[in-house]
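Your task
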Amino acid sequence: MAKSEFLLAFNEIAELRKLPREVITDALRQALISAYRRDTKASNAQRVEAEVDLITNLHKIFVEKEVVDDVLDDNTEVTFNKAQYIEPSVQMGDMVMVPIEYDVKRFGRIAAQTAKQVISQKIRDAERNQLYDEFKNREGELATGQIQSINNQQITLTLDRAEAIMPRKEQIPGERYRPHDKIRVLISEVKKSTRDPQIIVSRAHKNMLRRLFEYEVPEIYNKQVEIKSIAREAGHRSKVAVAAMAPGVDPLGACVGMRGTRIQNIVKELNEEKIDVIPWDADQSVFIAKALSPARVSGVYLEEDIDQGRTAIVIVPDDQLSLAIGREGQNARLAAKLTGWRIDIKSVSEAAISSVNRLDEPPLDKLSVDYPDMVVEVRRILDKKRADRAVMPEEYTTLARFVQMVEQRQLDQREIGRARRKKAMEKVRHTIPAYAFTVPLKDLNLPDSILQALKNVENVGDLMLRVQADADKLEEVLTAAKLDEDAMDVIDDAITDFTRAHREPEATLEAVAEEDAPMLPAANMPEPEAVIAAPVLDPIFAEDEEEAPPAFIDDVPQLPTRADENRPKMRKVPKVVAEPTEPVEAVFATDADGDDDKKGDKKGKDRRRELVFDETRGQVVAKRKRKGGRDRTGWTDNEEDE
């Protein structure tokens, strides 16, 4: 092939495939090496290199050979004198790269076919990698594609030199597609595959709406207006919250455009999907009220609960209730997605009736004393409404003021309760090891139903805090999730297994016994039959003593569970122990037949631990009765369990 023909073919491949010249040069180099190996049957262990000269079209092949006195195999050996011309410092037995005079026209048919296959494969691989890199960098951007084929599962499109698919869930419901139509899509995901890269596009993704706003509204593209959040139900309705980043810019006017031209272009692109543009506000109450537009809102009351998360109670006029909720709850659902708050919508009359029915309960029991006239007026208005008589606007205003007063009092009371719970948890936080707050809750291997109920608990340490200081509320959460009564037992066992698996080696049972358990003086050492079961000592209930340092080891009651709340407050045992006044049976009360007098009561499971004196060790140790279903039975020593 003449020089001009070779360069012409080389440039044509580079232009057609849109590949760098270095990629094609490397493919030619690899093809020459493969062809040489195939033609000379060279071993794969022998080093072979090639150089491609695009200017002269004269290519060189270098072969690794051993320096010897007598050459027996010209393909693997070279004489010392010839090697010195290549490398003057070469020694006998060294390996040297020897350029060989090899005319590529001498390649046989098999070698030429091998070179062709190598070139084709290298170019295809380079093209795939280039396509992947190109579209991977374009993830999240808009692209225009032409529809090739349509089936029930997906639509296949052509994007430049690549092929993309749009699954059914990424299509706008109700939108009609026809082959050869050009549509605008969002490149949502790019994956590597054994063949060409898999490009997934979407028209239902909320970022599709974001990119259309950036395309149609220059102020958004120039960062003068920022899109704070988007809530979208493709094909039906969307809400977009925007805020001005520069003074003097109207975010709503910029998005709507002159006579609504900008927003109308976006609506047409999305198959007449309704779009609400809402001004963002740092005050979450104001933002939630605007997110429920076009409905009017009388009041918004925010509450951040440990169990329920962020909840907003929204009071609306009676005639605005259906508008605030929307068709099939769509308006309220989109507002919740937009703001990130769980929204509970009530009408003024509904909230007033509920409040009047609870005037005898705290904290509403003082309203009748503090505001008797208002309570009487509210009752009169509600009776009037029950009789289907017309209620005047000023009477609705009175109801709204009454509801506002009630909701605020209830919020204040719940906030006091939450503060008390947080204070109790902070009081025992130091008893939880720091590493527990870095372990995800899923590492406890709890059932999925319990994990779903505890979705607001972030890590194992938080769950330990809840079990130790907030067990009643935690049990209410599990009950509300309709879990079995033994869900708390499952959590207790999971925490016990976790602390056992993560305990520190230096935290031994003897160290705990020396610090927390009272030692009996030798003079007062009881006889074996005088060994008693001492009550579990809990630092939370020791009012006059300093709190014992935490120690997380097997079955030592260092983490009070919900059973601890049923224990009476007691002081620590002094150093000199007097004779007990109660028998052992006082700790685990049984009847004449030996059955638990609380049998059937779920609180009976809390009587599984006791501290007893071990005469062989001369110290008090914790013992625990294993739950049914485990291999170990009877009363066992915690230290021996390890």
Q: What stands out?
A: The chain has 21 helices and 19 strands.
